[in-house]
Amino acid sequence: MSQTVFRPITPEILIASKPFTRFGFLPWGGRSTFIFLPSNELFIVVSTPLDERTRTSLHEFAGTEWESKVAYLLAPDDEHTLYTKEWKKAFPSAQVIASKTTNLPDIDIHNLSTIKIQLFGQLVTHELAVLHVPSKTLIEADLLFNLPAKEQYSKGKAGWFGSLIAKGIHVDGWAHKFIVSGGAGKGPAAIQTGKDASVVASWDFTRIIPCHGEVIEKDGKTAWNKAYGALQAASNEKKTA
Asked: Residues 155, 158, 163, 169: what is their CA dihedral angle, to the nearest 10 degrees?
């Protein structure tokens, strides 16, 4: 029985949430996001497998001919490529969007007026932040976490020890700032990450759909600035120095 939960966020956005355990004990959760573009194409931020439950849900969401509409497959960072390859094999005509350091083809993005993408090239995982402009929704993988992953484990079971630790991995939690600052590094790399974060902060969004943890339905910009405010401020000071 599939443990994946599907939920429409807006008429144009569907999410697929499932259990995923990190380090063998931490209930991290996994999530793909499916976006129906005005061009009648599907833009997919891939982080879950293409199974029969997914096919059925996309049939319900995007219509009987949904397979012919799969146009873009985005790997949100270097660590989220396994399922992207699976989807690409099933839909060979779809264009893959990934950072230049993956072994997936890197492409230019044309005619996607409803989508913005920002690369965090100085991070080890080379994150891609995605904005769906009409719904003011930011989609990201390992830039911001909002654990515990309640929706992603609604059909699964999480261990008590990992769940206890997960309670601190959100923008107001004790562990999140160490994850962000540690990932950003120091010196020029951290300054560039702050600049990249400032680009995202300049976007108009209220909702954040993370790959790991609960969807932030409102005040997403506030959550982003809590996570990256210090790095953004440091990069701005560097520019004015």
From this structure: -60
Cα 44 to Cα 34: distance, rounded to the nearest angstrom: 5
For the entire predicted model, the pTM comes to 0.91
Tokens of 199: 């680009």
What is the chain's Cα-based Rg? 17
Number of separate helices (H) and strands (E) present in the chain: 6, 12
Q: Cα(190)–Cα(49) distance, rounded to whole angstroms?
A: 33
Per-residue model confidence as pLDDT tens digits over 20-30: 887 777 777 89
5-240 has which CATH code?
3.60.15.10
In the predicted structure, residue 140 carries a pLDDT above the cut 60: yes
Q: Are strands 21-22 and 13-18 parallel, antiparallel or unpaired?
A: unpaired
**Average pLDDT score over the chain:** 88
Query: Measured in whole angstroms, how far is the alpha carbon of residue 110 from the centre of its chain?
Result: 21
The whole-number average pLDDT for the span 181-190 is: 84
CA distances from 178 to 71, 80, 98, 172, 181 (A): 37, 22, 26, 12, 5
State how far the alpha carbon of 237 is from the alpha carbons of 184, 191, 234, in Å. Answer: 17, 9, 5
β-pairing verdict for 13-18 and 5-10: antiparallel
The closest alpha carbon to 74, from 49, 90, 97, belongs to 97
